[in-house]
Amino acid sequence: MSLRSPPPDDARIRQAIAWSVRLRFAAGDPQLLSACSAWRAADPGHEQAWQRIQALHGELDGSFRALPSSVATFDTLEQTAQRLGRRKALKLLSLGLTGVGAAWLARDLTPWPRWTADYATRTGERRTLDLSDGTRLLLNTDSAVDVRFDARQRLLRLRRGEIHLSSGADPAGDHRPLRVQTEHRLFEALGTRFLVRQDRDATRLSVEQGAVAILPTGADPVRHIAEAGQHYRVDPSRVSPLDRLPMEAGAWTEGLIVTRDMRLADFLAEVARYRDGHLGCADAVADLRLSGVYRLDDTDALLALLPRSLPVRVRAHTRWWVTVEARV
Predict the structure, then answer these.
(1) Cβ distance 83 to 102 under 8 Å?
(2) Which residues contact 79 (CB under 8 A, 6 or more apart)?
(3) Among 53, 47, 69, 64, which Cα is nearest to 21's?
Protein backbone atom coordinates (compact mmCIF):
# COMPACT_ATOMS: atom_id res chain seq x y z
CA MET A 1 0.00 0.00 0.00
CA SER A 2 1.38 3.43 -0.95
CA LEU A 3 0.90 6.50 1.22
CA ARG A 4 -0.04 9.73 -0.51
CA SER A 5 0.91 13.06 1.05
CA PRO A 6 -2.06 15.29 1.91
CA PRO A 7 -2.90 18.10 -0.53
CA PRO A 8 -1.47 21.56 0.25
CA ASP A 9 -3.76 23.82 2.23
CA ASP A 10 -5.43 26.91 0.80
CA ALA A 11 -2.89 29.28 2.36
CA ARG A 12 0.01 27.60 0.56
CA ILE A 13 -2.00 27.48 -2.67
CA ARG A 14 -2.58 31.24 -2.47
CA GLN A 15 1.10 31.84 -1.80
CA ALA A 16 2.06 29.70 -4.81
CA ILE A 17 -0.42 31.63 -6.97
CA ALA A 18 1.12 34.94 -5.85
CA TRP A 19 4.63 33.76 -6.70
CA SER A 20 3.50 32.40 -10.07
CA VAL A 21 1.76 35.63 -11.05
CA ARG A 22 4.68 37.76 -9.95
CA LEU A 23 7.19 35.66 -11.91
CA ARG A 24 5.06 35.96 -15.02
CA PHE A 25 5.03 39.76 -14.79
CA ALA A 26 8.71 40.09 -13.85
CA ALA A 27 10.29 37.37 -15.95
CA GLY A 28 14.04 37.06 -15.62
CA ASP A 29 14.39 38.97 -12.34
CA PRO A 30 17.22 37.06 -10.58
CA GLN A 31 16.35 38.35 -7.10
CA LEU A 32 12.74 37.34 -7.54
CA LEU A 33 13.72 33.89 -8.80
CA SER A 34 16.04 33.45 -5.81
CA ALA A 35 13.35 34.53 -3.35
CA CYS A 36 10.84 32.15 -4.92
CA SER A 37 13.33 29.29 -4.76
CA ALA A 38 13.95 30.04 -1.08
CA TRP A 39 10.22 29.98 -0.39
CA ARG A 40 9.83 26.62 -2.19
CA ALA A 41 12.75 25.12 -0.26
CA ALA A 42 11.55 26.37 3.12
CA ASP A 43 8.68 23.89 3.41
CA PRO A 44 7.78 20.68 1.51
CA GLY A 45 4.21 21.95 1.41
CA HIS A 46 5.37 25.03 -0.48
CA GLU A 47 6.98 22.90 -3.18
CA GLN A 48 3.90 20.70 -3.42
CA ALA A 49 1.64 23.74 -3.83
CA TRP A 50 4.03 25.17 -6.46
CA GLN A 51 3.91 21.98 -8.51
CA ARG A 52 0.12 21.85 -8.33
CA ILE A 53 -0.16 25.42 -9.62
CA GLN A 54 2.32 24.88 -12.43
CA ALA A 55 0.44 21.78 -13.54
CA LEU A 56 -2.71 23.89 -13.99
CA HIS A 57 -1.07 26.59 -16.12
CA GLY A 58 -1.21 24.63 -19.38
CA GLU A 59 -4.93 23.96 -19.03
CA LEU A 60 -5.71 27.59 -18.23
CA ASP A 61 -3.47 29.17 -20.87
CA GLY A 62 -5.17 27.16 -23.61
CA SER A 63 -8.60 28.21 -22.39
CA PHE A 64 -7.86 31.93 -22.05
CA ARG A 65 -6.54 32.36 -25.60
CA ALA A 66 -10.07 31.86 -26.92
CA LEU A 67 -11.80 34.21 -24.48
CA PRO A 68 -12.86 37.60 -25.91
CA SER A 69 -13.11 39.63 -22.68
CA SER A 70 -12.57 39.66 -18.96
CA VAL A 71 -16.29 39.25 -18.29
CA ALA A 72 -16.43 36.22 -20.57
CA THR A 73 -13.38 34.86 -18.78
CA PHE A 74 -15.06 35.11 -15.41
CA ASP A 75 -18.33 33.64 -16.72
CA THR A 76 -16.42 30.68 -18.13
CA LEU A 77 -14.54 30.20 -14.88
CA GLU A 78 -17.76 30.26 -12.86
CA GLN A 79 -19.29 27.61 -15.14
CA THR A 80 -16.13 25.52 -14.78
CA ALA A 81 -16.30 25.87 -11.01
CA GLN A 82 -19.75 24.30 -10.97
CA ARG A 83 -18.29 21.11 -12.47
CA LEU A 84 -15.27 20.92 -10.15
CA GLY A 85 -14.68 20.25 -6.50
CA ARG A 86 -14.44 23.30 -4.25
CA ARG A 87 -10.67 23.17 -3.75
CA LYS A 88 -9.80 22.84 -7.42
CA ALA A 89 -12.35 25.50 -8.34
CA LEU A 90 -10.66 27.90 -5.93
CA LYS A 91 -7.32 27.27 -7.59
CA LEU A 92 -8.69 27.68 -11.12
CA LEU A 93 -10.60 30.86 -10.35
CA SER A 94 -7.59 32.41 -8.65
CA LEU A 95 -5.21 31.43 -11.43
CA GLY A 96 -7.67 32.60 -14.05
CA LEU A 97 -7.06 36.19 -13.06
CA THR A 98 -3.58 35.98 -14.59
CA GLY A 99 -5.13 35.60 -18.04
CA VAL A 100 -7.12 38.86 -17.91
CA GLY A 101 -4.60 41.19 -16.30
CA ALA A 102 -3.38 41.14 -12.73
CA ALA A 103 -2.93 44.82 -11.96
CA TRP A 104 -5.35 44.49 -9.05
CA LEU A 105 -2.98 41.94 -7.53
CA ALA A 106 -0.28 44.57 -7.09
CA ARG A 107 -0.58 44.61 -3.32
CA ASP A 108 -0.15 40.81 -3.26
CA LEU A 109 2.74 40.58 -5.70
CA THR A 110 5.25 41.21 -2.92
CA PRO A 111 4.16 38.68 -0.29
CA TRP A 112 7.66 38.02 0.98
CA PRO A 113 7.56 40.69 3.76
CA ARG A 114 4.47 39.09 5.31
CA TRP A 115 6.05 35.64 5.34
CA THR A 116 9.38 36.71 6.82
CA ALA A 117 8.40 39.56 9.17
CA ASP A 118 8.30 39.18 12.95
CA TYR A 119 4.59 40.03 12.96
CA ALA A 120 2.16 40.24 10.05
CA THR A 121 -1.53 40.26 9.13
CA ARG A 122 -3.43 38.84 6.19
CA THR A 123 -5.82 40.85 4.02
CA GLY A 124 -8.78 41.82 6.19
CA GLU A 125 -7.05 40.86 9.45
CA ARG A 126 -6.21 43.19 12.33
CA ARG A 127 -3.94 42.19 15.20
CA THR A 128 -3.02 43.60 18.64
CA LEU A 129 0.31 42.90 20.35
CA ASP A 130 1.81 43.93 23.68
CA LEU A 131 5.57 44.33 23.28
CA SER A 132 8.18 43.63 25.96
CA ASP A 133 8.54 47.33 26.87
CA GLY A 134 4.82 47.83 27.44
CA THR A 135 4.17 49.38 24.04
CA ARG A 136 0.88 48.32 22.47
CA LEU A 137 1.14 47.63 18.74
CA LEU A 138 -1.86 47.26 16.44
CA LEU A 139 -1.39 46.01 12.87
CA ASN A 140 -3.94 46.88 10.22
CA THR A 141 -4.87 44.73 7.24
CA ASP A 142 -2.05 43.28 5.09
CA SER A 143 0.75 44.69 7.26
CA ALA A 144 4.18 43.47 8.32
CA VAL A 145 6.60 44.73 10.97
CA ASP A 146 9.93 43.70 12.50
CA VAL A 147 10.75 44.46 16.15
CA ARG A 148 14.41 45.16 16.92
CA PHE A 149 15.12 46.13 20.54
CA ASP A 150 18.77 46.49 21.56
CA ALA A 151 20.88 48.50 24.02
CA ARG A 152 20.60 51.70 21.98
CA GLN A 153 17.03 51.88 20.78
CA ARG A 154 13.64 50.21 20.47
CA LEU A 155 13.09 50.01 16.72
CA LEU A 156 10.02 48.89 14.78
CA ARG A 157 10.61 48.47 11.08
CA LEU A 158 7.35 48.83 9.16
CA ARG A 159 7.84 46.72 6.07
CA ARG A 160 4.31 46.96 4.76
CA GLY A 161 0.93 48.43 5.62
CA GLU A 162 -0.14 50.38 8.69
CA ILE A 163 0.34 50.33 12.47
CA HIS A 164 -0.98 52.09 15.55
CA LEU A 165 1.36 52.54 18.52
CA SER A 166 0.73 53.43 22.15
CA SER A 167 4.25 53.89 23.46
CA GLY A 168 5.36 52.41 26.77
CA ALA A 169 8.07 53.57 29.17
CA ASP A 170 11.40 51.81 28.70
CA PRO A 171 11.54 49.16 31.46
CA ALA A 172 15.31 48.94 31.11
CA GLY A 173 15.56 52.43 32.57
CA ASP A 174 18.01 53.46 29.86
CA HIS A 175 15.57 55.79 28.09
CA ARG A 176 16.11 54.05 24.77
CA PRO A 177 14.20 55.95 22.06
CA LEU A 178 11.19 54.21 20.54
CA ARG A 179 11.39 54.59 16.77
CA VAL A 180 9.52 53.50 13.66
CA GLN A 181 11.41 53.05 10.39
CA THR A 182 9.60 53.06 7.04
CA GLU A 183 10.94 53.12 3.51
CA HIS A 184 10.70 56.91 3.55
CA ARG A 185 11.71 58.19 7.00
CA LEU A 186 12.52 57.48 10.65
CA PHE A 187 10.04 58.55 13.35
CA GLU A 188 10.66 58.86 17.10
CA ALA A 189 7.91 58.69 19.72
CA LEU A 190 7.93 61.43 22.35
CA GLY A 191 5.52 59.81 24.83
CA THR A 192 2.65 59.35 22.47
CA ARG A 193 -0.06 57.48 20.60
CA PHE A 194 0.19 57.62 16.82
CA LEU A 195 -0.38 55.90 13.48
CA VAL A 196 2.08 55.24 10.68
CA ARG A 197 0.91 54.16 7.23
CA GLN A 198 3.38 53.24 4.51
CA ASP A 199 2.10 53.83 1.00
CA ARG A 200 4.07 53.38 -2.21
CA ASP A 201 5.37 56.95 -2.56
CA ALA A 202 5.25 58.29 1.00
CA THR A 203 4.46 57.58 4.63
CA ARG A 204 1.46 59.11 6.38
CA LEU A 205 1.81 60.04 10.05
CA SER A 206 -1.16 60.83 12.31
CA VAL A 207 -0.60 61.79 15.96
CA GLU A 208 -3.43 61.14 18.42
CA GLN A 209 -1.64 62.04 21.67
CA GLY A 210 1.71 63.52 22.65
CA ALA A 211 4.19 64.21 19.85
CA VAL A 212 6.35 62.44 17.28
CA ALA A 213 9.69 63.62 15.92
CA ILE A 214 10.24 63.19 12.17
CA LEU A 215 13.98 62.72 12.01
CA PRO A 216 16.22 64.44 9.42
CA THR A 217 17.54 62.95 6.20
CA GLY A 218 20.27 64.07 3.83
CA ALA A 219 17.65 65.67 1.58
CA ASP A 220 15.76 67.21 4.52
CA PRO A 221 18.12 68.08 7.39
CA VAL A 222 15.38 69.55 9.61
CA ARG A 223 13.96 67.70 12.63
CA HIS A 224 10.17 68.15 12.48
CA ILE A 225 7.84 67.75 15.45
CA ALA A 226 4.29 66.50 14.84
CA GLU A 227 1.82 67.37 17.61
CA ALA A 228 -1.42 65.73 18.70
CA GLY A 229 -4.18 66.13 16.12
CA GLN A 230 -1.75 66.71 13.25
CA HIS A 231 -1.32 64.64 10.09
CA TYR A 232 1.64 64.61 7.71
CA ARG A 233 2.65 63.13 4.38
CA VAL A 234 6.36 62.31 4.62
CA ASP A 235 8.88 61.26 2.00
CA PRO A 236 12.71 61.36 2.11
CA SER A 237 12.88 64.98 0.96
CA ARG A 238 9.71 66.64 2.23
CA VAL A 239 7.32 66.80 5.20
CA SER A 240 3.91 68.09 4.14
CA PRO A 241 1.08 68.83 6.60
CA LEU A 242 -2.35 67.45 5.76
CA ASP A 243 -5.01 69.90 6.87
CA ARG A 244 -8.05 67.67 6.53
CA LEU A 245 -8.34 63.94 5.96
CA PRO A 246 -11.34 62.49 4.08
CA MET A 247 -11.56 59.72 6.68
CA GLU A 248 -10.72 59.31 10.36
CA ALA A 249 -7.16 57.97 10.50
CA GLY A 250 -7.54 55.70 13.51
CA ALA A 251 -11.06 54.38 12.93
CA TRP A 252 -9.71 51.07 11.63
CA THR A 253 -8.49 50.20 15.13
CA GLU A 254 -12.20 49.90 16.04
CA GLY A 255 -13.01 48.01 12.83
CA LEU A 256 -14.54 51.04 11.12
CA ILE A 257 -14.14 53.40 8.18
CA VAL A 258 -15.42 56.88 9.08
CA THR A 259 -15.66 59.15 6.03
CA ARG A 260 -16.19 62.87 5.62
CA ASP A 261 -17.24 63.96 2.12
CA MET A 262 -14.96 61.31 0.57
CA ARG A 263 -14.78 60.55 -3.16
CA LEU A 264 -16.36 57.22 -3.97
CA ALA A 265 -13.28 56.08 -5.92
CA ASP A 266 -11.05 56.84 -2.93
CA PHE A 267 -13.48 55.14 -0.55
CA LEU A 268 -13.51 51.96 -2.65
CA ALA A 269 -9.71 51.99 -2.85
CA GLU A 270 -9.67 52.02 0.94
CA VAL A 271 -12.25 49.24 1.27
CA ALA A 272 -10.25 47.20 -1.26
CA ARG A 273 -7.41 46.98 1.27
CA TYR A 274 -9.65 44.75 3.43
CA ARG A 275 -10.80 42.23 0.82
CA ASP A 276 -9.29 39.91 -1.78
CA GLY A 277 -9.78 40.54 -5.48
CA HIS A 278 -10.59 43.64 -7.51
CA LEU A 279 -12.90 46.40 -6.28
CA GLY A 280 -13.36 49.51 -8.43
CA CYS A 281 -15.88 51.87 -9.94
CA ALA A 282 -16.89 53.35 -13.28
CA ASP A 283 -15.54 56.80 -14.12
CA ALA A 284 -19.09 58.18 -14.19
CA VAL A 285 -19.50 57.66 -10.43
CA ALA A 286 -15.89 58.10 -9.24
CA ASP A 287 -16.43 61.67 -8.00
CA LEU A 288 -19.62 61.04 -6.06
CA ARG A 289 -19.19 61.94 -2.38
CA LEU A 290 -20.19 60.07 0.74
CA SER A 291 -19.99 60.50 4.48
CA GLY A 292 -20.75 57.91 7.10
CA VAL A 293 -19.59 55.13 9.40
CA TYR A 294 -18.97 51.70 7.86
CA ARG A 295 -17.99 48.41 9.46
CA LEU A 296 -15.00 46.58 8.00
CA ASP A 297 -15.72 43.06 9.25
CA ASP A 298 -18.07 42.29 6.32
CA THR A 299 -17.12 44.25 3.21
CA ASP A 300 -19.89 42.62 1.14
CA ALA A 301 -22.47 44.01 3.57
CA LEU A 302 -20.64 47.35 3.53
CA LEU A 303 -20.88 47.56 -0.27
CA ALA A 304 -24.56 46.62 -0.16
CA LEU A 305 -25.19 49.86 1.74
CA LEU A 306 -23.91 52.12 -1.04
CA PRO A 307 -27.08 52.11 -3.22
CA ARG A 308 -29.04 53.38 -0.22
CA SER A 309 -27.15 56.68 -0.18
CA LEU A 310 -25.81 57.04 -3.73
CA PRO A 311 -27.31 56.56 -7.23
CA VAL A 312 -25.18 53.46 -7.87
CA ARG A 313 -25.44 49.70 -8.17
CA VAL A 314 -22.89 47.11 -7.11
CA ARG A 315 -22.13 44.60 -9.84
CA ALA A 316 -20.30 41.41 -8.88
CA HIS A 317 -18.94 39.56 -11.91
CA THR A 318 -17.57 37.06 -9.38
CA ARG A 319 -16.80 37.35 -5.69
CA TRP A 320 -13.26 38.42 -6.74
CA TRP A 321 -14.26 41.12 -9.26
CA VAL A 322 -16.72 43.79 -8.08
CA THR A 323 -17.53 47.08 -9.81
CA VAL A 324 -19.70 49.98 -8.65
CA GLU A 325 -21.60 51.56 -11.54
CA ALA A 326 -24.24 54.20 -12.14
CA ARG A 327 -27.76 53.05 -11.39
CA VAL A 328 -29.71 52.54 -14.61
Answers:
(1) no
(2) none
(3) 53
d(CA 267, CA 251) in angstroms, rounded, equals 14
Task: Evaluate the CA torsion angle 272, 275, 64, 315 in order and state its sign.
Answer: negative
Instruction: Report the alpha-carbon distance of residue 22 to residue 72 in Å, rounded.
Output: 24
| Model pLDDT for residues 160-218, shown as the tens digit of each residue | 999 999 998 877 667 899 999 999 999 999 989 999 999 999 999 999 999 999 999 99
Which of 134, 117, 100 lies closest to 21, judged by CA? 100
Note the helical H segments in the chain. Answer: 10-25, 30-42, 44-64, 70-82, 86-96, 112-116, 264-271, 299-304, 306-309
5 has a pLDDT exceeding 60: no
Give me the half-sphere count of Cα atoms (radius 13 Å) on the Cβ side of residue 68.
0
Q: Are 276 and 18 in contact (CB under 8 A)?
A: no
